[in-house]
Amino acid sequence: MGHAVTEFTPAKIAVLTVSDTRTEENDTSGQFLADALKEAGHTLADKKIVIDDIYQIRSIVSQWIADQNVQAIMITGGTGFTSRDSTPEAIKPLFDKEVEGFGELFRAISFQEIGTSTIQSRAIAGFANHTVIFGMPGSTGACRTGWNGIIKQQLDASHRPCNFMPHLGQ
């Protein structure tokens, strides 16, 4: 909170789409996140699509956590309740610290859009190795909610009273 940085600093952000069916051609959620972060002035560090498998998700996210060229990770998909939805289970063990407020605020904002169905969102966030990781539902609308409602401001060093930028690795 006592950090002096007050101007926008671009972050290096990776985007992961978790889906058994999406391809680069029809991945509207991952593409929205990639476009939105670039439009905001950030750098797309990497973009991948992975099947809904705990160990494959964990493998990619772990590589990004260890990569000095990735400061933030946005994941879309795999947060529901089907037997294949396993993003929270895949990434939570990797966290050094959980950002409980992300899921809480995501669902509060989402409630205004989709009502009580928001309880089916297991949106999650945390830090690992000075990398912030956001997990959102797979719909493009949910990604828009997460980005516009929370993430965009928290990845902007000029956002007051505080933001995540001082906590990210260089």
Describe the model.
- The protein contains 5 helices and 6 strands; from the N terminus they run βαβαβαβαββα.
- The protein has helices at 28-39, 54-66, 87-91, 100-114, 140-154, and strands at 12-18, 43-50, 72-76, 97-98, 124-128, 131-136.
- A 6-stranded mixed beta sheet has the order 2-1-3-6-5-4, with helices on both faces.
- A hairpin with a 2-residue loop joins strand 5 (124-128) and strand 6.
- The radius of gyration is 15 Å and the shape is globular.
- The two termini are 18 Å apart.
Task: Tell me the strand order in the biggest sheet.
Answer: 2-1-3-6-5-4
For the sheet with most strands, the description reads: 6 strands, mixed
Structure classification:
alpha/beta
Q: Helix tally?
A: 5
Instruction: Provide the gyration radius in Å.
Output: 15 Å
Amount of helix: 25-40%
Principal-axis shape:
globular
The topology string of helices and strands comes to EHEHEHEHEEH
Please mark out the parts with pLDDT under 50 across 5 or more consecutive residues, or reply none.
none
Q: Let me know the average pLDDT.
A: 94
Counted beta strands: 6
Strand content: 15-25%
Give a short summary of the structure:
35% of the residues lie in helices and 19% in strands. It is an alpha/beta fold and 170 residues long. The chain is globular, with a radius of gyration of 15 Å.
List the helices and strands and how they pair.
Layout: E1 12-18, H1 28-39, E2 43-50, H2 54-66, E3 72-76, H3 87-91, E4 97-98, H4 100-114, E5 124-128, E6 131-136, H5 140-154
Parallel strand pairs: 1-2, 1-3, 3-6
Antiparallel strand pairs: 4-5, 5-6
